[in-house]
Amino acid sequence: MQRRTQRTVVDGVDFDRVFKFPSILTAITSSMQPARLFIGFAMVVVLMATGRVWDSLAPALVVPLGSSAELSVLAQQRQVAIAESGTVLGNTAPDDLQTWTIEDAQSHLLAAWAKHEAIASVSKKDRVTFEKLYLKLASVRPLGPFESSATFVSNRWNAIVDAALNLDVVGSWKGIVSIVWELPQLLWNAGHHWYISVYGFVLLLVMSVGGGSIARMQACQHARGECLSVTSALQFSSQRWRASLLALAAPGMLVAGVSIGLVLFGLLLFNMPVLNLVGSILYGVALVFGFLIAIVAVGYAICWPMLVPAVAVENCEGGESVQRSFAYMFARPLHLLGYLTVLVVGLVLGFIVARLLATMTLDFTANLVGAWSFNESLSNAGAIQADGIPVVGLVWYESAAGGLVTLWETVVYDFMVGWLFSGFFSASVMVYLLMRYACDRQDTHDSWWDGMIAGTSVTEP
Length: 461
Fold this sequence. Notes:
mainly alpha
């Protein structure tokens, strides 16, 4: 008997249902919307203003964060640079040179250079000497905790971008670990405990309100194609900021509480002749709590991108957000790792586009506006120079106009940095929705709306 052959004809493949991870990259594209960029910009302004205020009140770090230089070497380099600035261009060292700070030396150097340009012809050798000395002073200038932290994060983020472009997965991972794990340790070891507590709270609060707004915008657009206004998104996040803040802070608070308990355990039971035997017997219990710290800390670092989106999508409480995120991580760890990889790749590619647009905007504007400008008002306009050496000898109106131009250019850069917030929280929403689908098989378009029970998709009776 001849066997009958059956053929199956495939007319097409619905790639959106088969391959869902591209929706993370789609969210990166959606994050360029003006409303989200404005919220990201506002987040940057609040964080920058808070950090500047803190640096103006707090003592500077004698050794920059992440620097391997020894304190004695840095102190010697600062003294040498200050001494050179006092005698540069043939000047006589001032009597109070020994009391100068790096800022005093920079001010004196700029004044001396302006005077030298006014009364003598400037040779190429003199200009090179001035520029090298200014850069030398800038390289050893003590930084406040915020400025040092911002510099550390900027350097590590650039390292992540470079590693990603070179397909160096290990390098990208090291950069992420440096920002998430190493930076708080460096600040703590430097003695800036209040900075970690106060600025950390401000950071989490800004993430809760601003990040929650951006996440809600992405959730609504993905679910119904609805583009929320800035006012509507902020209204939602301002009502749910406590839940988002608790979701972001609860795992860290748990780790801190258990850590303090273990410290007290060692203090009370391992410092007396007899009690140390009891402590050694109970050391197995301490190991259990140490294991708990490790699990929560690692899980927190991995699940962090899903905490605020869970509140924005489900309108749930902070504890439920943590529970959902950790449950999804343990249920589908490889899925989560893959989605986070796509998120990082999307952020890197999006940042390259954002940086390119910002640089071209600044350079095109500066070159076109300055084409027929015959004074020095636009001398520092355009993309930020690599050396950052200011122009001296300007008259008051050139200096004032240049300051205003710099202010406007700073707005452009703040929007570029603000896009990182917009891109991160927009893509994180899709990571959460895809993980929810992978674990619960709940459609990614399901979201909480007015008239539903909080934390569910069930309509209120």
